[in-house]
Amino acid sequence: MSHFQTREHIADQHKWDPEAIFHDEKTWERAADRVQSRLTGLCTDDITRNPATLAETLDTFFDIKAEFERVDVYATLHSLIDTTDERAQERSGRVDDLRSTLETNRSSIETAIQRTNAERIETMLAESEALSQYGQYLCNLTCQAEHTADAAAEAVISTLTPVLGGNQTYETLLNADLSFPSLEKPNGEQVDITLNNRETLLRSHDRPFRQTVHEQFYDTLNEYRHTIAATFDKHVETAVRTADIRGYDSSLAAALAAENVPAEVYKTLIEVISTNLDPLHEHLQYKRKRLGVDVLRPWDLNVRLVAEDATVPYERAKELVVEAVAPLGEAYQSRLARGFESGWVDVYETPNKIAGAGTIPAYSTEPYIFLNYQNDVNWLFGLTHEAGHAMHAALTSETQPIVYGEFDWFISEVPSTVMEALLVHHILETVEDTALHRTVLDMWLERFRDLLYRRTRYAICEQQMHSHVGDGGQLTPDRLDQFITDGWARINAPVSVDERIAGEWMQAKYLNMWMPFYVYQYATGFSAALSLVTAIREEWDGGSSGEMASRYLHFLRSGSSEYPLALLSEIGVDLRSKKPFEQAVNAYHDALAEYTVLDQP
Q1: Is 79 among the domain residues?
Q2: What is the CATH number of the domain that holds 134?
Q3: Count: domains in the chain
Q4: What positions does the domain Peptidase M3A/M3B catalytic occupy (predicted)?
Q5: Radius of gyration of the chain (CA)
Q6: Taking the model in full, what pTM does it have?
C-alpha cells in the first residue's frame, strides 16, 4: 500500500519521529527561546579588533547556528507531513523569524570582516590557532568584499529576503489550497489528480486518459495563473534588486559568485546541450514509433516504453540501493543501511503531505528524506536520489566543523546522481529480471531527458526571466508562457505542443521558486556524476573499492571546506570544459542504443 488516510496506519519504521530531536513541543519552545536569547545577546561590534575576539564571536555564532538547526528541523518535519497543520505553520513562522535574526547577525559579522583590510585578516589567521578552522571561510568573505553593501543595507537585505521571495505563498497555494479534479481511470476507478500522482497518471497507456489528466491539471492551475505569476515576479525581482545593490552585473552573476563558479560553466552547459539535440530527438522519435502515434504530444512524454511498470515495494527498493553502492566500499554501504533503519525516511503519501521528494540536509541532526513512495521504478529512483543527498549530508557533518557543514549547492546534485548511475549498473548487471532491466533502462533514458535536457531548457528560461526583469520588465502570465513555448520549440522540436503546455512554469518550481539559478546544477551535477561513476567502476574488481572511490568519499566529506570547482577538479572533473557535457550526451546515445537492442520482441 502506498497511500494512507492517516499517519497512524503507517508503521513507525516508515515515518519520521520529530520527537527524536525534541521529545515534546515545550522542549522545542524552550530551545527556540534559548536561540532567540543568545542571538539577541550576540555582540557583533568591533569583532576584528584582535584574533581572540574574532574567534570567540565566530565560535559563538556557529554554536547558536547548530542549536538553531535542531529547532528548524523539528519544525520543518512537522510542517512537511501536514501542510494544513496550523500549529506546525506557527512553529515554522517562528523559525522564519529566528532565521531572519540569525541571518542579520551573520550579515553584521561578515560585513565587519569584509570591511577589514584583507592583509589584516591574513595576519590574524597566521597568528591565531583558534582561527585556523575558519581559513577558507574568511578568505571567501574577503574575496567577496567588493560585492558587499554597507552594514545597514546588508541587514535590511537579510531581513526582507524571506518576506519578499514569494516561495512560501507559492508552496502553500500548490500544496494546501489548490484542489485538482477527480477522474475515472480506464479501469473505472475514481482517482484524484494530485501533485504527487500526476506523473504516475501520465504514464497510463490509455492516451485519451493521459490527455484528460494533462488538460484538467493545467486548466486547474490556469485559474491561478495571475497569482502564481505574481509570486514568480516577486521572487525574481528580489534576486535582481539584491544583485544590483551588491554591485553585480546581473542576478546570474550574483548566484554564480556565491560559490565562485565562473559564468563559462553556465554558458558551456547551455551551448553543448542546446547544440547536441540528436540523442534527445532520437529518443523522442523512438518513443513516438513505439507508442504508435503520428504526432508526439506533451501528454505522451511520461509514458514508459515497457508494457507494464515493474513493481518495486519499498523494502526491496532499500535492498537494491544498498547493494548498488558496493563500489563505494563497505563503510559507505553500512552507513547508508544504518540510516535507512534509523528513521531517515518518511515513506508514504498521506493527506496534505508535501508533494514530491526531498532531503533536509541538516548538520545538527540526522538527514531526513521525505517521499510519497508508489511501489514503482520511478520512486525507486527517487529514493536512490535522495539517499545520495542524505549520505552527502551525513558524511559532511561527521567530518567537518559546522562552518563547512553546508556543502555548496553547485555540487549537491553530484552524489544523488552517482547513486542513480550505480543503481542502474547494479540492476542491469546482477539482477536476473529482463522486465526490470527494460523498466530501469527506460527510466534511465528519462533521467537523461529530464536532468540533462529539460533542466537545461529551464536554465535557459530562467536566464530569460531574470534578464527580462533586470531590463525593467514584469513577469506577466503571457510573458512566462512565451518563455516556455520558445524553450519547447528550441529543445523539444519533435513534440507538437498544445496551448496548455505554455503554462508549464506554473508547476515547475525548479525554475526559481526555491533558489535562483539552482536548476542548471541538475545538468552539471548529472554530467559530473556520470564521469565519476565511469572512473569508480573502472577500478572496482567486484570486491574492494579502488582509489577513485576513496577520493570520491573524501569529496563527500569535504563540505564547503574548498570551492566546489576545486573539489571536483581533485576527483578529475572539470566543468569549465565541454568534455563532461559531451560525455553525458554520448552516454545518452549509448543508453538509447542499448535499450533498442533490449526492446526487440
Answers
A1: yes
A2: 1.20.140.70
A3: 1
A4: 201-585
A5: 24
A6: 0.90
